[in-house]
Write a structure and sequence with these properties.
The chain is of the alpha/beta class. The chain contains 14 helices and ten strands. The chain is elongated.
Length: 331
């Protein structure tokens, strides 16, 4: 604040010098406004241009006073500017403004709260699918990782409503809160749902008791990483071949994929109200429809071939890499 006030004072002093110079030359030399402005500027800047006429004693003394006053004001202004930019890094200010502009241009993006282990994994997966995302993080070590990974972020507290407002939640497609504390995740879910009633909220949880609270607060899905990891390890003991096979099915990357989700809304109009059989996916691409999501959000495993394709429904398709590529090209 002190540096800012000094900057303000220096601008007032520079204006004062300009007013005194113009007024003085108009009064002492009986010059016009434009000529007085010219004389003041060349005197303040000490560029060395010639005067409009031979100066008398009074004019010379006034010019000397104006030069000395200008030098003092310049010195003060340079000090104020140096102090201001020393206290507030100009590059950091420009960077913050650039980030704000990028956030304003975001639409249908994902907000990730926290850049710890789970947050990093979430961002990496979003990047694989070219999904726009922004991270909010307050821990210095994690911010250094965000800088290194060249991830769009803001430094702030996800549990603070003022910081959440900066993330464009009203235009976001989804939010992932992966903070270490279940209480913080609960607070984020409650706050975020107030900004956007419709978008998807996915929350991390550590304790079983937090699951119901997060769902009640408005989380669409609640993920418990420790529980999932333990269940996966146990499955490798009970049904190792099945788990190994499922692990080999991927949804990542442009070419390295075996599973694909197709939104019926994105298909040509000619497919609406048709059946899965009418699509003839197997013949056209070699892929098989293994799942179907209804408008009500219900999942059908191995759906009937007579299932109708309606608005807001989704198909889940299985195929090898070449078949998935053919599917993307065709649809």
């Amino acid at each position: 604040m002190v540096a800012k006030s000094k900057l303000y004072i220096s601008s007032v002093l520079l204006t004062t010098v300009l007013v005194i110079g113009i007024g003085g030359f108009m009064f002492i030399s009986n010059e016009s406004f434009v000529d007085s402005l010219y004389m003041t500027i060349i005197t303040m800047s000490t560029v060395g241009f010639g005067t409009l006429h031979e100066l008398n004693q009074t004019e010379k003394l006034f010019t000397v006073f104006l030069i000395i006053f200008s030098i003092i004001v310049y010195g003060y202004s340079v000090t104020a500017l140096t102090e201001y930019f020393a206290n507030r890094n100009i590059f950091q200010i420009l960077k913050i403004k650039k980030v704000q502009q990028e956030i304003q241009s975001l639409k249908n993006h994902t907000v990730v709260c926290g850049y710890g282990r789970n947050g990093k994994q979430a961002v990496a997966k979003l990047k694989q699918f070219n999904q726009p995302c922004i991270v909010i993080e307050k821990r210095k070590d994690e911010i250094a990782d965000l800088e290194r990974d060249n991830i769009l972020y803001i430094e702030g507290d996800a549990t603070n409503d003022d910081d959440l407002k900066k993330l464009g939640l009203e235009r976001a497609k989804s939010l992932i809160t992966a903070l270490p504390s279940d209480a913080d995740n609960l607070f984020v879910v409650l706050s975020a749902r107030q900004f956007n009633k419709d978008f998807t909220i996915i929350s991390r949880a550590s304790n079983e008791s937090s699951y119901g609270k997060l769902k009640f607060a408005g989380a669409t899905n609640v993920i418990m990483p420790d529980k999932l990891g333990g269940a996966h390890m146990a499955s490798l003991v009970v049904t190792p071949d099945l788990v190994e096979f499922v692990d080999r099915l991927t949804i990542a990357g442009t070419t390295n994929a075996n599973l694909e989700e197709i939104s019926v809304n994105s298909l040509p109009d000619e497919y609406l109200s048709k059946t899965i059989l009418d699509m003839d996916l197997r013949k056209k691409t070699g892929c098989n429809v293994i799942g179907f999501k209804t408008k009500e959000g219900e999942y059908l495993i191995n759906p009937d071939s007579k299932t109708k394709l309606e608005k807001d429904t989704h198909l889940i398709v299985l195929g090898n890499k070449d078949q998935i590529l053919k599917l993307r090209e065709h649809f």
